[in-house]
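In the design runs reported in the main text, the only information available to the sequence generator was the tokenized backbone. The following block is the verbatim input for one such run; it is reproduced so that readers can re-run the procedure and compare outputs position by position.
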């Protein structure tokens, strides 16, 4: 019995093609079964996420398996197995799966979501009864390898997005976010994603202000917060701990005078100000005030880039673990 993998991902295929072969979680078992029933393929597992769709097969003949799968893709999805697809056999397929599970082939290096997504694909095929000695041992070993990679390396360390970096900074300053009050100035997408990151880590008191009050109301409702009219946001400075600003204004919205006016009322508590606007919303001079921690988008991007570099440096260590674990596994089909 031989191991075979065919797939495409965000590096090899445009989204227009990936969406054609995208498979909902509820249909993964059905699709795995369709590969096996009445065909020269003995075992099958299908993995499908927004960034990849992959077919793992066990068959006596790789040539027959490849032909059968190509016909299936043409008949089922209307796509040909062209240069956008990659094909991997035996050990190469096993190494590839371990890299996928470990987050080494993800758009965000080291991300953890893919681990659960692969587990869903395998569980669906297992429940459908279309896995056997080859794929069961392969996937169980891959999950074991993925856990070891994440526990033994720094592949997950550091935040690689602007929003996540901002949240990390907030936790370093305040310890935890459950008592922190947040004000979002501007209701654009960057404000939304950063605010969502704060909420996901415990922040619960949020004020939203925007020149368009209706947009502020909508975002506040989405975040479970309160909307403030743009003419009234200065009054809230005395009670907030974190400010996220991204208005699209052509000039500074917040200057030193705004903060100086409320420092005594704030009892000189720390204030984290995250300026993700270009042009900048917050005068850089604000950052010279003792209790203010001011970060603009370049500063956040620099911290995110440093984290990405640190993760890149971990790849060789991760790959060494994969090679070592597969070498002692004696998996069938390799």
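Verbatim output:
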């Amino acid at each position: 019995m031989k191991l075979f993998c065919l797939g495409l991902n965000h590096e090899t295929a445009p989204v227009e093609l990936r969406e054609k072969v995208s498979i909902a979680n509820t249909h993964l078992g059905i699709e795995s079964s369709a590969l096996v029933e009445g065909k020269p393929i003995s075992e099958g597992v299908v993995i499908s996420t927004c960034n990849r769709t992959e077919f793992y097969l066990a068959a006596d003949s790789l040539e027959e398996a490849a032909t059968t799968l190509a016909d299936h893709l043409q008949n089922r999805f209307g796509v040909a197995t062209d240069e956008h697809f990659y094909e991997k056999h035996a050990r190469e397929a096993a190494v590839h799966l371990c890299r996928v599970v470990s987050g080494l082939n993800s758009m965000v290096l080291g991300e953890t979501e893919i681990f659960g997504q692969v587990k869903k694909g395998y569980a669906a095929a297992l429940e459908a009864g279309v896995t056997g000695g080859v794929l069961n041992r392969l996937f169980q070993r891959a999950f074991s390898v993925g856990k070891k990679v994440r526990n033994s390396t720094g592949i997950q360390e550091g935040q690689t997005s602007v929003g996540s970096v901002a949240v990390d900074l907030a936790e370093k300053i305040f310890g935890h976010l459950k008592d922190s009050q947040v004000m979002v100035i501007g209701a654009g997408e960057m404000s939304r994603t950063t605010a969502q990151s704060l909420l996901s880590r415990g922040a619960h008191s949020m004020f939203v202000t925007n020149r368009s009050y209706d947009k502020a109301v909508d975002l506040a409702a989405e975040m479970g917060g309160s909307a403030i009219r743009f003419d009234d946001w200065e009054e809230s400075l005395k009670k907030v701990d974190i400010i996220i600003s991204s208005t699209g204004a052509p000039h500074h919205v917040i200057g030193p005078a705004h903060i100086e006016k409320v420092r005594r009322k704030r009892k000189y508590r720390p204030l984290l100000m995250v300026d993700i606007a270009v042009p900048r919303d917050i005068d850089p001079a604000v950052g010279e005030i003792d209790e203010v921690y001011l970060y603009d988008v370049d500063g956040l991007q620099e911290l995110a880039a440093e984290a990405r570099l640190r993760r890149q440096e971990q790849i060789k260590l991760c790959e060494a673990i994969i090679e070592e674990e597969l070498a002692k596994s004696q998996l069938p089909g390799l």
